[in-house]
Amino acid sequence: MSMNFSGQVALVTGAANGIGRATALAFAAEGLKVVVSDVDTAGGEGTVQLIRDTGGEACFIRCDVTRDAEVKALMEGTLAAYGRLDYAFNNAGIEIEKGKLAEGSEAEFDAIMGVNVKGVWLCMKHQIPLMLAQGGGAIVNTASVAGLGAAPKMSIYAASKHAVIGLTKSAAVEYAKKKLRVNAVCPAVIDTDMFRRAHEADPKKAEFAAAMHPVGRIGKVEEIAAAVLYLCNDAAGFTTGHALAVDGGATAI
Ligand SMILES: NC(=O)c1ccc[n+]([C@@H]2O[C@H](COP(=O)([O-])OP(=O)(O)OC[C@H]3O[C@@H](n4cnc5c(N)ncnc54)[C@H](O)[C@@H]3O)[C@@H](O)[C@H]2O)c1
């Protein structure tokens, strides 16, 4: 399948590490100019360097997705750098819970909802007018299999990812006639720092994580990047408002 993205511009949040970095690299490999964004400046600049090392074009714009003014400035910076925005991957997210629902704190709730829900909402709020003004575009938001069902000891995270799917579906329907598609990608356990932080203290948890996927392993960042590029591409032109599980069969059980 030819992706034919050349000359276009993609923005990736949470692009300093993990799934976001891999997706920024994948966009660049397809010839897109990439705006790499994150709160982690060193990691974000590292992603830009990796893209430039392979002959691609990218720039870093620091942005905390929980801050309206910073998200607005990110879109203005994207236009200043590359003149347009064709694709946005709203991927920045956190997971900090340590226990069951009744053990959670208000601070955890506000932090998780702030990045995972408000961040995605603010990004779409500022991206959609740009895309409408230029005649269309595509947005992919990072949800999770925790947005499709229960996630024990991650109840706030699960609520946040269900909310991402709600935002995605609503925006998709609102703008469906405007050549603007909005979808979500729902990874199961993927080999990133987020996964390693959660499991390094207990190797048994890593074994459990592999076993929960019928394919018998956790996922790779490149496997999520490939799904995001497909959802952005014209090949997915009839797909909007969809929450695509990329999960080694985990939600099929
Ligand atoms: N790794 C998994 O198993 C997994 C599974 C399902 C969904 N996800 C989701 O995938 C996305 C990426 O996760 P990852 O595994 O690559 O994690 P990661 O921790 O490697 O990357 C997340 C990135 O988001 C950035 N970030 C955090 N808060 C931010 C903020 N306020 N503003 C801007 N950037 C911010 C971090 O600096 C980091 O670079 C997240 O939304 C996560 O919830 C991950």
Automatic annotation (TrEMBL):
Source organism, top-level taxon: Bacteria
Record carries keyword Electron transport: no
Q: Which UniProt keywords apply?
A: Oxidoreductase
Which InterPro entries does the UniProt record give?
NAD(P)-bd_dom_sf, Sc_DH/Rdtase_CS, SDR_fam
User: Does the record's keyword annotation contain Oxidoreductase?
Assistant: yes
User: What NCBIfam families does this protein map onto?
Assistant: PRK06172.1 (NF004818), PRK07231.1 (NF005559)
Family from the record: Belongs to the short-chain dehydrogenases/reductases (SDR) family.
Q: What is this protein called?
A: SDR family oxidoreductase
Species in which this protein is naturally found: Metapseudomonas boanensis
